[in-house]
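Internal QA ticket QA-208
Title: Verify multi-chain structure generation after dependency bump
Assignee: T.L.

Test input:
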Amino acid sequence: MTESKQSHIPDKKQPSPVPDGACSFQLHAECVDTSARRGTLQTRRGSIETPAFMPVGTQGTVKGMLPEQLKEIGAQVILGNTYHLFLRPGHERLARLGGLHHFMNWDRPILTDSGGFQVFSLGDLRKIDERGVRFQSHLDGSAHMLTPELSIAIQEALGSDIMMVFDECIPHPSTRQYVIESTARSTRWAARCKAARSDSGAALFGIVQGGMHEDLRQQSAEQLLEIGFDGYALGGLSVGESADIMYQVMEWSLPLLPKDKPRYVMGVGTPENLVEAVSRGADMFDCVMPTRNARNGVLFTSFGKLSIKQARYVEDELPIDPDCDCYVCRNYSRAYLRHLYQSNEILASVLNTTHNLYYYLHLMSQMRNAIASGDFADFRDEFYRKRTVAGEA
Amino acid sequence: MTESKQSHIPDKKQPSPVPDGACSFQLHAECVDTSARRGTLQTRRGSIETPAFMPVGTQGTVKGMLPEQLKEIGAQVILGNTYHLFLRPGHERLARLGGLHHFMNWDRPILTDSGGFQVFSLGDLRKIDERGVRFQSHLDGSAHMLTPELSIAIQEALGSDIMMVFDECIPHPSTRQYVIESTARSTRWAARCKAARSDSGAALFGIVQGGMHEDLRQQSAEQLLEIGFDGYALGGLSVGESADIMYQVMEWSLPLLPKDKPRYVMGVGTPENLVEAVSRGADMFDCVMPTRNARNGVLFTSFGKLSIKQARYVEDELPIDPDCDCYVCRNYSRAYLRHLYQSNEILASVLNTTHNLYYYLHLMSQMRNAIASGDFADFRDEFYRKRTVAGEA
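Actual output:
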């Protein structure tokens, strides 16, 4: 490592137009070769070292994991889904039961989505107008209307530490005209969300939309900055576009966001996506990929993905990844994990999820260390080298 | 407590006709009011304090539980199923993979059943003759023959610490003639099992059959004692007979068994059954009830059963059992557990199983303490009193 690769401490924080106290973000180091950054996001329920991955806890549980197990593998913050919790058990009930943290026995930060992604995914079951989205519950067909104001009320009732504005995650492909209209509406909704906020201890993040168009992304970012939020997210990614387009949108959008605010790339993605997004200056991520893939027997390793259901593992005494230090890799063989998967055992989901989440969280921890020590570019090279070698083997 | 209720140390162990070294059993205390006994069964993989309950780990896992979690709630020994493990992953493969303990990461004792119960339950898919039972796999229809010799070979390949003889668990009701023939065959098979045993470090238990007939139970016990085993089980219970008949069979059979050998009542039962069986001198139990009921949302408490799916718990902030000290009752409300169950979450099975197994294991621990301190009869009264009060409330 040459001296010129040393990371440097960024400039003093700029004054912020958003309310103080909800959260604060401090940058500790920036990569000189890439736009990767190492920071700390302070929330009312504790700090989050960034770049950070947030396991998804859709229905008040990260599927198959106890809170203690999540902590043991290094989860600093989890994501809760407003849509699901609104429908069941209901946000008013959750508030009476002491909020989501108490309900699910998780005392670290929770970021909540706005419910927008889920209601917009309902297809024929939903109808959009300026007020919000009318939709029918996927559980019982009951009719509801989700508005920016209700989304914030729900997130506050849950006791969210980081709330997201209610917006539309624009499908891909969409016409430019639709992207323009949808993004403009999302921006108006973002302003309504900020106005509706009553819990000054909960952070509120804006979400940049604008589809796969540079000028529309720029416009969206500028308008959100004008409103002013505690952090900024990129929405509308991982919706079927190619990785190249995804990275292009990050390159257009991330530099437009203030350096002294956390940047959250929503719903992304594969380990490669995370490395590339961090390289481009992203700080926070969530994705169902590690947990959902785990339940389907697809495991992440330093040498790529591994499908534990394959017959080749039936008598394989190796752990999932010989280079992995997780509880699963220290104690169980591929043969055992294949047996559990084939036998449809609950423990298959538990162990596979434990490993995959550890893989994701450990990857983030490795990136944080590499950025802090000025080795991020080397880390990224090595990350890809291990995958290539395995692919050739 | 009066002085006359003090427990006493039983007579010195009688010399045993079975091979030494496989296991040893020591009685520490006997109840003066009932036939309850407090002992220690020493196996090659550690000791089991009795009376003991053995969680069932059918397919190489106690459904939903990590080995560490089982230890934390006090599991001393678990049961493995010969039939299931023979079919998948296969006993020869398991032996190559280092045995069942290594495979599933469990270093405490494992008792294995003989596979008899499962193959006899296959109905039309099985055929019995003197050699053994021909059957078709419930997984793929493949044809197999399970014999006493193969059952022992499988149990030894698994690395069992306590093996069971291959026998028929006689259906109820059956004709007296069928019980006579079946029991006689099971006795011949028991002798073949003993002859087939090659692992002198694994204990082998005989199983008393004889249906619901006192004379046939007596005959079975006497013939098994003549062959000589490391311990003795009562089979053919919990097969649809009334609790009164079950207790009657225990009262006939248990006193026939040597005091200095462990007595295992197979497949039993409810908490009440366990208390009654312990009162009648039983030392060991296994049952799928706590684990299976847990997955169906039925939870055991000091005041009886509780069905967590009921709407009445939707906003109930109490733990499952306010008198329970388990991890689940210390951290989660009925409202949360109901939500997880209604949402079909993996964590519902994990938490419910943790509670139910804790309930069973803690019940055994309470009975051990009560026998040791001479308070067992009082304990039993209190056990029923709590249930009655709740029933009246």
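Spot checks passed. Chain B has two domains: 23-286, 288-393.
Status: verified.
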